[in-house]
Amino acid sequence: MASFFDVGSKRKDKKEEDEGHGAVYAKLDKTAVLQEARLFNQTPLNPRKCVHILTKILVILGQSDKVGKVEATDTFFAMTKLFQSNDQNLRRMLYLVIKELATIADDVIIVTSSLTKDMTGPEVAFRGPAIRALCAITDSAMVQSIERYLKQAIVDKSPAIASAVLTSAYKLMAVCPEIIKRWTNEIQEAASGSRIMVQYHALGLLYLIRQSDRLAVTKLIQKFTRSTLRSPYAYCLMIRIVAKQLNEDGHSSNPQLFEFLESSLRHKSEMVIYEAARAIVSLRNLTAKELAPAVGVLQLLCTSSKPALRYAAVHTLNSVASNHPAAVTACNLDLEQLIGDPNRSIATLAITTLLKTGNELNVERLLKHVSPFMSEISDEFKIVVLESIRALATKYPKKYTVLLNFLSGLLRDSAGYTFKKAVVVTMESIIKQVPEAKSIGLLQLCDFIEDCEHVKLTQRILHLLGREGPYLKRPRQFTRYIYNRIMLESAPIKCTATTALARFAAHNEELLPSILVLLKRIMIDEDDEVRDRAAFYHYILSNNQAALKSAYLLSEEMHLSPSGLERALLDYVHNAHSVSASAFSLATVPIADISVQSNVDALNSGVESDNIKIKIPPVELYCEYNLVVKLRLMRICAGFYDVHEWMNHIDNISTEQRH
C-alpha cells in the first residue's frame, strides 16, 4: 500500500528538493486555492492534481485566514465528486479535508452514505479513515443509525479499524455518552486482546466511561492489575490510573496497588519501568525506604545509552531532589558523570540536581564543577542553574562568600541582559537574607556597574545601594561609586543615582556636608529631571528637618495614585487664592492599588525547572514610583509660582497619608 504522504507516484528527486519544491505551500492565496477546487469536476479526474489541491486547502484551513461558510460549502460539494476515484492517496486526503470542513460547511451530511459505504466496504485502507470522518460529522441522532457498524468494527481483525472506532468514541463521548456506554462488552473484549494499540485505546475508553464511578474504577484496576497487559502503552496508562487512585486514597490504605507499582519497576519495557518510577516518586507522604526502589531504577536509567531515557531519569530525579534531597544523594556520582553529557539539557538538569542535593561541606566542590560548565551553555540553561544556586544560598547562608564570589564572576562573563538580571537578583536575595553578606555583595555590585551596559540593571543596583548602603558600617565607600554614575552615565541612571546619594545623606550626618556639595554640582546638569531631583533633595537635606527626610527620602513607599495626585494638585493651585482655601493634604488623594510583588519576570523563558522560578520585582515600580509622585508635585506647582513661592507651598503640604 502506498504511503499516505507519498502524494505522487514517484518520490521527488534530489534536484527538486534543492530547488525548494515544497515552497509552493508557503504563500497561498485563499481565493485562488478555493477556485482551483473546480478541477474536481473534471472527467476523468487527475488524482495527483486533486491531492495537490486538497493539500493546499488543508494549509489554508490551518492558517489565520478564515474560510467563510459559503466558500466552505461550495468547496465541500465540489469535493464530493472525488468519491468517484478509488485512488488511495486521494481518498485518504479527502477524508482529512472532510473532517476539517465539517465544522464550517453546511449540509455535510450529504456524504454520510458515501462514508458509510467505505466504512462497510472491503477496502481495509478506506475503512479506518472513513470511520474517523463519519464520526466527525455525525450527531447523536445519526450515531444510532450507524451504531451497529461501529460496534462490529471495535472487534474487527484489523487493528487500524478497531483503533479508529475507539479513538472516535473518545469524541463521541461528548455527544452521546449513553450510546458509547452500551459498547462496554465490545470495548472490554478489545482491551483483553493482544493487539498493542487497540488494547491501549480500549483501556483508555473504559476508564473514560467509568471515571465518575469509584466502584467501577476500582473493579477496572483490580481486573487489569491482576491480568497481564501485553501493550506497554496500556501498562503505562494503568500505572497512571493506579497512581491517581493512590494519591486520592493514600498509598498506605492500598498496599496492593503500591505493590503493583513496585512490581512494574521490574517490567521488561524501559517505558513501563520509567513510568512506574515516576509514579512512585510523585506519591505524597512517602518515606525514604519507599522511595529507594524507584530512585535506584532512575539511577540505572541515568547510565542508559538512550538520551531520552537519560533525560527522563535526571529530570525526575531533579524533581525528587526538591522535596527529598537525601534520597537522591546516592545518585550523585552518576549525576556528576552526566555533567559532561553532549546533550546540554541533560547536563543542566544534572548540575541543578547536584546543587539541590549538595551539603554545606561540598558547596565549593560543586561550584568548581559548575564554573567550566557555565561557559558552554546558553543563557537559557544558565538561568536554570542560577535557580538552584539561589536555593542553595537559602539553604546554606554561611556559604555566602563562596556563592557571591561565584556570582560576581558570572557578571564579568559575556552574556545577555536576562541572564545578568538573574545573577543580580540572586545576589540581591543573598544580600537581603544574610546581613553579613551586605558589604561584600554591594561592593561586588558596585564593581559591576562601573562597566555595565544595561541601564535597568544599573538603576536596580543603585536603588539597592541607596536602600541598604546607608545602614552599613562604612557607607562612605559607596558614595564614590554612585557619584561616578552621575558623572559618566545617561539621564535615567543619573536620576536613580541622585536619589541613592540623597538617601546616604539623610541617614548619615557625617556625609551630609559633602553630599550637599555634590548635589549643588548636579543642579547644573544638562538634564531637567536630574536638576529637579538635585534641587529637591538639596532643599530637603539643607533644611535638616527629620519629618521631611522621613517623608521624602527614608520612606520606602508612597502609595498614591499619580493621576489622582495630579488632579488634586491642579484643583489646589487653581483655588489657592480663594478665601476658603486650606493647606493641601495628601489624605484627599486616592491610594493606588499597586502591590510590589516578586512575580513579574519568571526567568525559565519557556524552560520548566520543576516548579522553581526566580521572581524579579520590576525596578521601575519600586525604584521610581515615589519620585514620579514627588516630581509631578514639583512641576505642577512650578507651573504656577516662582521658585521661592512653590517651595513655600511644598512646606505647607501636609504629609498625612490615608491608611
Automatic annotation (TrEMBL):
InterPro entries: ARM-like, ARM-type_fold, Clathrin/coatomer_adapt-like_N, Coatomer_gsu
Transmembrane parts of this sequence: none
Short name of one Pfam family: Adaptin_N
Any one Gene Ontology cellular component term annotated for this protein: COPI vesicle coat
Domain Clathrin/coatomer adaptor adaptin-like N-terminal: 31-543
Gene Ontology biological process terms in this record: endoplasmic reticulum to Golgi vesicle-mediated transport; intra-Golgi vesicle-mediated transport; intracellular protein transport; organelle transport along microtubule; protein secretion
Gene3D superfamilies: Leucine-rich Repeat Variant
PANTHER family: COATOMER SUBUNIT GAMMA, COATOMER SUBUNIT GAMMA-2
Name by which UniProt lists this protein: Coatomer subunit gamma-2 isoform 3
Organism: Schistosoma japonicum
Lineage: Eukaryota, Metazoa, Spiralia, Lophotrochozoa, Platyhelminthes
